[in-house]
Structures
1.
Amino acid sequence: MPIVTATRLVRFNAAHRVYNPTWSDERNQATFGKCNNPNWHGHNYTLEIAVEGSVDPDTGYVIDLGTVKEVAERELVRHIDHKNLNLDVPFMQGTIPTTENLVLACWRILAPHLQPARLVRLKLWETENHYVEYDGR
Ligand code: NI
């Protein structure tokens, strides 16, 4: 049976400070630069959620992408949109809120909720110039 990948985008914005709390101010500044600003800064994030599966003969869909959007809004976006990733988001506590760590958290949260499709790739854009990808490995 052919397998098709379908992708839904969701958008949110959030504030953060990228720093290692066990390091000195000097080492944080040297490593993270302006991302270490103690008074926070924000990003408009775009998350691409790619799922794969066979095409349901009754619907012609791998999965209704409206369902993917609803899952993403309910499980993820409402917990992080307009929030401070360092202070407001329980699942980011204890991690440095880089795009890399955020995409891993997004995977853990979304992967169990996308049946009958299977989550195969997340692409998280932090700015229009850079993104990270994760495929579950
Ligand atoms: Ni940043």
Note: The chain is about 25% helix and 35% strand.
2.
Amino acid sequence: MKIRILIFVLIAIVCTSTVNAAKPASKRISEDLFGVFFEDINYAADGGLYAELVQNRSFEYSPSDRKEIKDWNSFTAWQYVTEGFAYGLVNVESDAPLNANNPHYLTLSIEDAGTSGVGVANTGFDGIAIKAGEKYDFSVFARLMSDIPLPLSVRLQSEKGEIYAQTEISARAKTWKKYTAMLSPSKTDDKARLVIIAKARGKVALDVVSLFPEKTFKNRPNGMRADLAQMICDLKPKFMRFPGGCLVHGDGLGNMYRWKDTIGPVEQRKGQRNIWRYHQSVGLGYYEYFQFCEDIKAKPVPVVPAAVSCQNSGGTWRIGGTGQRGIPMAEMRAYIQDVIDLIEYANGPATSKWGAKRAAAGHPKPFGLEYLAIGNEDKITPVFRERFKMIYDAVHAKHPEIKLIGTAGPFHSGEDFDLGWNFADQLKVPFIDEHYYETPEWFLANTARYDSYDRAKAKIYLGEYASKGNTLFNALAEASYMTGLERNGDVVTMASYAPMLANKEHTQWNPDLIYFTNTTTMPTANYFVQKMFSSNQGDIYYSDVVKFDGGGSKALTSSVVEDTASGDLILKIVNTGAVSSVARGDLSSFVGAGKKASVEVISGEPTAKNSFDEMVVQPKVSEALITGDFVYSVPAYSLSVIRVKTR
Ligand code: AHR
């Protein structure tokens, strides 16, 4: 971004009047205020952040993965390939699987290899995007089912068959064995495919066919797509909530997210139907979530089911959300132990049972889990209460150091909200997760929502919110609301926009923060607003620093925080109206002589919206010098973040 030195243009500097003026009233606010929420919705994991390029790598897709269109099966995203007059059979079998959690595998039976062979091609997630000269790590588990070693040609090639890279492996072992190879394509192609061709008569079984770019985020094996991960990292989130959302409680008891199914070697993990109507491989599992949090310096905030399924399971949202089911009481002890084991997995020593599994995965040091959420937007029924209390009491007794987060339904008010809060009061749950998706007008009318919250009650985690749109006006309404969150940062300890990621071709929920294709990313106006707030957080809030000429209007809001680590003073000024304004403040107690400030401004037409073709809404950064009294021209429809160095 272009940095311009602007002196006396955006910021008018007036001489310092009261060098030793008293600082304005202040209070400490949460150090974890703005973070992110990652849910595997909209292909956010497989086909998204998780860098695996092969779709249906374990041949586990099934018709039940999808709701309306039940056309998925073990061959989804795979094609049968015969070349050069060859013939043979391709099949899916399950007699002697690699692992019970991963029951299906592909077999290639080659009757006549002809001049070239018989095999399969994977078409990835709408094509495999490869770049010339980059390196890609291929791996496959194979089991020879005939007597003579079978040569397998592994290639990256175009839809029409042009070969970009190839190598050969020889399946020799009669038991499952992992084979690896590196492929470096000669050309860039967004719609390439991975092809495996058996080149001699015989039979071989294949499973967990994988292709990863070598350059994942921080070069982690089984890692994250670098560009998407970097965008999340750029937000400088203080925490990351994962893996959902409704994904966590699942639709039906069999579909709950069970963290133990998602750790260990990927070939041993148990993929399943995603509540958002696709398959989740869980290649991005709990270990990878913790590692990613550490890599982006965000505190992990896992959400475990409150032992009940979604109230809307089975489409019962049409009849009042009667689909909630509870884990049978006979299984609750084991379930609660699973939750306690999660804490040991994250924080236990490498010598403990679950800490050892973390260490075996490559992280002997604890991950430093501090927060744990129980439940997501669950209906507050007797079934829920009974189970929540059992989990809460047991976890709290065993791990009083963990900050537990309860849930208050899917809306900002109403029955589940009230019942959820009352229940939390009763149990003295220290944090409550509120969710709401509303119009921008609602957000603007409710910027003072937390001003009157009882400070003696639970603290708030605003786990999901969005203003139902990606225009600049939507983003500014959120910005205005976020000034209210900062003002109430003593009671609102965390907040995260939702959902975060959406694959353009597979979106179940709009709006989202970041849209992407296989090769590009599209930050929304909302993303930039989130970034401007979350990369400019403070731990002290100052009241009444900014005044607007003429007493201001409802369209004008502001907040001022100090980041004590850097000593920077950060002013956020929002104008959701069509009329520009003037903001003034006495900063003489913070800055004496001229100090450098960065001025980041996002503004434009309220209806402006980014697209993959045109990024019309983006912030601009300039520099200014600030002294004691300051005067700032606030553009119409804008958010300005002014970060002043005081040291
Ligand atoms: O963020 C999308 C969904 O909205 C979440 O899964 C759920 O918690 C909420 O209803």
Note: The chain has ten helices and 36 strands.
